[in-house]
């Protein structure tokens, strides 16, 4: 899935007691990963996550694309 950053909401979540910058999209929290740049590489990483049962998405930011990983509600405190 590819979305624009402007289509998300900025939020702050607590994961295992640590405050983190995140975004909310369709009711799900996502945190940024270190993977950014070429969209083809990011789509491959997103598909790999899905194959492992994880949810991630490619977000179009101001000057780049970045992979954001979902944070299950059970991990948010």
Please supply descriptive tags for the structure shown above:
alpha+beta, six-stranded mixed sheet
Commentary on this structure:
The protein is of the alpha+beta class. It contains 1 helix and 6 strands. It has a 6-stranded mixed sheet, with helices on one face. It is globular and about 35 Å long. The mean pLDDT is 92.
Estimate the helix proportion, in percent.
Answer: 10-25%
End-to-end separation in angstroms reads 26 Å
Q: How many structural units, i.e. domains?
A: 1
Order the strands across the largest sheet as they lie in space: 1-5-6-4-3-2
Report the average pLDDT across residues: 92
Rg (C-alpha, Å): 12 Å
The best one-word shape is globular
Q: Element order, helices and strands?
A: EEEEHEE
- The secondary structure category is alpha+beta
Beta strands, count: 6
| Low-pLDDT ranges | none
* SS summary, helix count: 1
Quick rundown:
By secondary structure, the chain is of the alpha+beta class. The chain has one helix at 39-51, and strands at 2-4, 9-15, 18-25, 28-36, 56-60, 65-70. The longest helix has 13 residues, at 39-51.
């Amino acid at each position: 899935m590819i979305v624009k950053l402007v289509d998300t909401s900025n939020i702050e979540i607590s994961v295992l007691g640590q405050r983190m910058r995140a975004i909310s999209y369709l009711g799900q929290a996502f945190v940024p990963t270190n993977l950014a740049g070429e969209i083809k590489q990011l789509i491959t990483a997103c598909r790999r996550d899905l194959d492992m049962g994880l949810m991630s998405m490619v977000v179009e930011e101001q000057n780049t694309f970045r992979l954001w990983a979902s944070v299950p509600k059970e991990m948010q405190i």
